[in-house]
Hints:
81% helix; 322 residues
Amino acid sequence: xxxxxxxxxxxxxxxxxxxxxxxxxxxxxxxWGVNYPLVKMSIAALDPLVFNAxxxxxxxxxxxxxxxxxxxxxxxxGRDLWKFLVLGLLGNTGYQLFFIFGxxxxxxxxxxxxxxxxxxxxxxxxxxxxxxRVGKLGWMGVFSAFAGIALLVxxxxxxxxxxxxxxxxxxxxxxxxxxxxxYTLGSRPLVHRYGALxxxxxxxxxxxxxxxxxxxxxxxxxDWGQAGWGPVGVALFSGLFAIAISYIIWNLGLRxxxxxxTAVYVTLPPVITAxxxxxxxxxxxxxxxxxxxALTLTGVILxxxxxxxSPREEVQSGEEGN
Length: 322
């Protein structure tokens, strides 16, 4: 097969697949952006660990039911079961615990900035572990998106304070980003082998139980009458849409876009949250925030247009062109 025609065919197929995948990732960014202020209100009334365990429990129940309804067979993964377990512990219990306890010890502004390092960590870990190579355009996009979030936070007039009491919290949130980065990179081979839905179901179902068990003592002590039904309703929405459905789409993104080009979409939810606050709550959205939003969107586009591949994909591409 002629190498040029092969590359042209692959590029055409990619363009047709990308539009659907990008639309799905934009939907995930929108759900996460709307979900964030709802979660903030809910954990003011309900213990954060209990709330997170509740929404993860919703996802744990809904994902297998969705797989059953779609006729997806969850069996036949025996040799890789330990990988699903490790990735589930990293991406569910590990990430949630680091984030919850980190947020308790730092400001929301610091936490937003720390979370925006996720695509940077994915790209770095991918390069160091030889799992994914990111081109110059990709690195420009990643850091542009990070700079955009920094401007967005500063534009809200919220102070960033590094050190002192917030230092431990910042470190814990960064550790949470690291666990999510490793989960993202480790999930991609499993998604290619078993599909996005089966990978999502198994990593959530196997990896969420420590989080649920740790929350039980707090759940028993919780004053559910005072908390009301509002946080429970948000947990149902968050568990179904922000976790179950969004995680499936996230894993589809890993399959079609790669780890770094999927992870950069994490920078969009803070922009959407700020816009929601501006449109619905009348909060300020000034020039610095508009610049930050533009930089973030530019970063996503640059990263999306970049070349990012794993060594295995490069070998397969070379074989196909010969």
